[in-house]
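Task: encode each sequence below as structure tokens.

Item 1
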Amino acid sequence: MTEPVDSRRISNGIRTLRFLHGEMTQAELGRRIGLTRQTVAAIEAEKYSPSLEAAFRIAEVFGKRVDEVFAWSEPE
């Protein structure tokens, strides 16, 4: 018997943080962390989980700890 797939995912507050930091665009955030705007958009929309390195870079841009930007959501 196989185990059920865990329905948890990584959530984030990137959109809010971008707004609070001078309405930073996805493109600007991407430029600052070395990713494309499309990748930032996918991470922000929770359709793609960032690498650990990307998560640390994103947190650093906003002067936050990784756990202040990203959270492991509870199962639905």
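Item 2
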Amino acid sequence: MTKYARDEFDRIPEASSRQGVHRVAAGPSKRKLGPVMAVGVAALAVGVAAFFFFPKLGFSTADPLAMFGRSSSASGSAPSAEPGTTPSATTEPSQSPAPLATTSESTPPPPTPEPIAPLVDKSQPVAVYNGTTTAGLAGRVAEQIQEDGWTTDPIGNWGGLPQQTSVIYYKGEAQKGAAAALGTLLSIPTLVDSAEFQQPLVVVLGPGYQ
């Protein structure tokens, strides 16, 4: 027995060569378009909202990856400059000039010129007086002066006031250089400008002179 109800196709003549009719299984029913259209409308609404509201929230619609929190650097692209700014040029490190090669032999400094001693007129006579108790001191000093090219006259004992030290008297500014030369020769640093003497240069040997 079949589970289907009998219909007109079951009423066939008994003498017919066909013994039955095969029923075709019913195919699946057509899907309804309502849910599909609802999903499409919802997707369109989301797209419109993203187009108008995402720029206000700081997202750029030109870069869809920004909506998902992905930076352009993660995708391997070079970062783009912000609007209104110009990319700064890459400056290369400045290279300092190489130091000049120095020669192994240094140039010696020029010799320092020695000061030229003023010319001293040694032709004028030099008086030598012994102001100590040492006998023959004036003659010994006069010989030393003569060996240096000077002329000595007169030579004797000092008859003036007692001297505290050895002094070289000179007469006027013109004789100052000659007096300084005698002071260096005899190791007498005291020089006195005096007009009391007739001689231009007078050497008075005081106590302690050797």
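Check on item 2: DSSP finds three helices and five strands in the chain. Strands lie at 125-130, 151-157, 167-170, 191-193, 201-205.
End of task.
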